[in-house]
Specification:
The chain has 292 residues and is an alpha/beta fold. The protein has one domain. It is 35% helix and 17% strand. It is built from 9 helices and 8 strands. Strands 1, 2, 3, 4, 5, 6, 7 and 8 form an 8-stranded mixed beta sheet that branches.
């Protein structure tokens, strides 16, 4: 188990710095992927993701190479601008995220002041599984992960496979609200982690099989404060359309049948191009039963 959230994970040979896993994180186990057809990769930090991109910048084996094409995806017209985004984040998005996060934190404190002042979980030291929570499984049924200090933890996995036509302001607003929610939880003594997931399904002509490539990147670790630069670098359509496309080019090493396939949907993740999943999480976390 790695970082407490990969169940029965077997780490195989790395692909130029990215870990290869045999199983999805526990929160995503309900997703249906045929055995052997999904390549599950993990970048445990923004540094690992950027290093992979730089190491493969000049990869030419794929005739597609769409990751290098000049096209605007969330403000990056070129590959060089994408690398700069990974390096420095998006200053405009960072500024807005800080404002929205702080405002949301204040609003939530006012809205749930009675609940927050006496906040607790139903199970001490539980591993709070967002996939099970959103599917309606009561917290008391969740498997506790007991640690020395009986820490309470929440894992959030964001689905990065959203359409490039989504407005940056919409994504920024929703992420800022989610970060404000997590900030309140951490003020209540709950550790939070955030990961970004994206996946593509495609037909690989050489092997004549349907393949899925899934990338999971750590945005925030349990003991890490919110890093707005990192969040602004990862939470954008470029994560799929430059990052995932490059990974697909490198791993396929073949003609991609004229395209890059279709983005994948994942059960148990937070969709950030709308606010429904975030609002559902808020209601579950601050329900009346969480009062002492």
């Amino acid at each position: 188990m790695e970082n407490g959230d990969m169940k029965k994970t077997v780490t195989k040979t790395d692909i130029k710095g990215l870990k290869v896993h045999s199983f999805l994180p526990k929160v995503l186990e309900d997703n249906d992927f045929a055995a052997g057809t999904a390549l599950i990769l993990e970048a445990r930090s923004l540094h690992e993701l950027k290093k992979f991109m730089l190491d493969n910048e000049d990869f030419k084996d794929s005739p597609q190479n769409a990751s290098m094409k000049t096209r605007e995806w969330s403000g990056t017209f070129t590959w060089e601008e994408y690398i700069d985004l990974l390096d420095n984040g998006d200053k405009e998005v960072m500024k807005k995220l800080k404002i929205i996060t702080n405002k949301t934190t204040g609003d939530l404190h006012k809205k749930y002041k009675d609940v927050i002042s006496s906040y607790q979980y139903d199970v001490t030291g539980e591993f709070f599984d967002i996939g099970l929570v959103l599917s309606g499984v009561p917290e008391v049924w969740l498997q506790p992960v007991i640690e020395q200090e009986e820490k309470q933890r929440i894992d959030i996995i964001i689905n990065g496979s959203f359409d490039s036509a989504q407005k940056k302001d919409t994504i920024t607003e929703n992420i800022g609200y989610l970060l404000g929610l997590l900030k309140v939880l951490e003020e209540c003594g709950v550790e939070t982690s955030v990961k970004m997931i994206a996946g593509v399904q495609n037909y690989w002509e050489r092997s004549r099989t349907n393949k899925s490539i899934i990338l999971i990147t750590t945005v925030k670790q349990y003991d890490e404060p919110i890093n707005f630069k990192k969040v602004s670098a990862l939470i954008s359509p470029t994560y799929l359309r430059r990052g995932m496309f490059k990974i697909e080019e490198v791993t396929a090493k073949m003609n991609l049948a004229g395209g890059y396939g279709k983005p994948m949907k994942f059960k148990g993740t937070i969709e950030i191009h709308h606010k429904r999943d975030i609002e559902a999480l808020e209601k579950r976390i601050f329900k009346e039963e969480n009062r002492k």
